[in-house]
Design goal:
Elements (H helix, E strand, L loop, with lengths): L2 H15 L6 H21 L7 H13 L11 E5 L7 H7 L4 E6 L2 H14 L4 E5 L11 E7 L4 H8 L3 E11 L4 H9 L8 E3 L5 E2 L10 E7 L1
Parallel strand pairs: 1-2, 1-4, 2-3, 4-5
Antiparallel strand pairs: 5-8, 6-8, 7-8
Helix pairs in contact: 1-3, 2-5
Length: 222
């Protein structure tokens, strides 16, 4: 089999394991995104992962693994410090009815994302070049997500002005950060005790073909 066939097989098999149903055109968009990421990475240093198979597993499937945990009643979502578009761009492909904003302060990365948006015709995608603490949206978001963005306390302090009162802040992490969660729920002046983490609702994430620990933490207002 060719490399492309192997990559498509890994992606489709992974989605089956995640019980995630995607249409053929969505798989094609993910492969097209992969190709653009590999091409632009040579000049823009978008990711330290350059092997196509590793990108499928550690970027695409890692992002797709959390899609089913995003509430269906969420209409708009922002990915903070999105980098090469992970996980937000992948979520936008998997959930085309969801409005997704990708925010990053790195101009090269947002330039790449603009090109991906144009090439893949992702009409549900908005790109913002800004620091999270400086960004003032026209309307607040139903959900915020980020992958390994600082500590839970610092992350929430930086993004809290972007979330609706009924919204949820998602944090993608590796191992469950027990100490961070305890410190968070004890309260800290950066977040004014407005938010908490329900330790009963932390989802352990299984990423196909990956042995590393993953979890998704939900932070909500009291």
């Amino acid at each position: 089999m060719t490399l492309l066939t192997n990559l498509i097989t890994d992606l489709t098999t992974g989605c089956e394991q995640l019980e995630l149903t995607l249409a053929s055109d969505q798989y094609q968009l993910l492969i097209n995104y992969l190709n653009l990421l590999i091409k632009w990475n040579k000049a823009y240093n978008l990711t330290a992962i350059s092997n196509p198979k590793d990108i499928i597993i550690k970027h695409l499937l890692d992002s797709l693994a959390i899609v089913k945990y995003i509430n269906n009643d969420i209409n708009n979502l922002i990915d903070i410090g999105t980098g090469a578009g992970l996980p937000g761009l992948v979520i936008a492909i998997a959930r085309p009815n969801l409005k997704v904003t990708l925010l990053d302060s790195n101009n090269k990365k947002t330039s790449f994302l603009q090109q991906v948006k144009i090439n893949l015709k992702l009409v549900n995608l908005t790109i913002v070049h800004s620091r999270a603490e400086d960004y003032v949206p026209d309307e607040r978001f139903d959900a915020i997500i980020s992958r390994a963005f600082a500590s839970l306390i610092d992350y929430t302090a930086v993004v809290k002005h972007l979330i609706k009162s009924t919204g949820v802040i998602y944090a993608m992490k590796g191992k469950i950060p027990e100490d961070e969660i305890i410190a968070f729920n004890l309260g800290f002046n950066k977040i004014d005790n407005d938010f908490y983490i329900d330790t009963e609702k932390i989802n352990k994430i299984i990423v196909p073909f990956l042995a590393e620990d993953r979890c998704l933490i939900k932070i909500v207002k009291r």
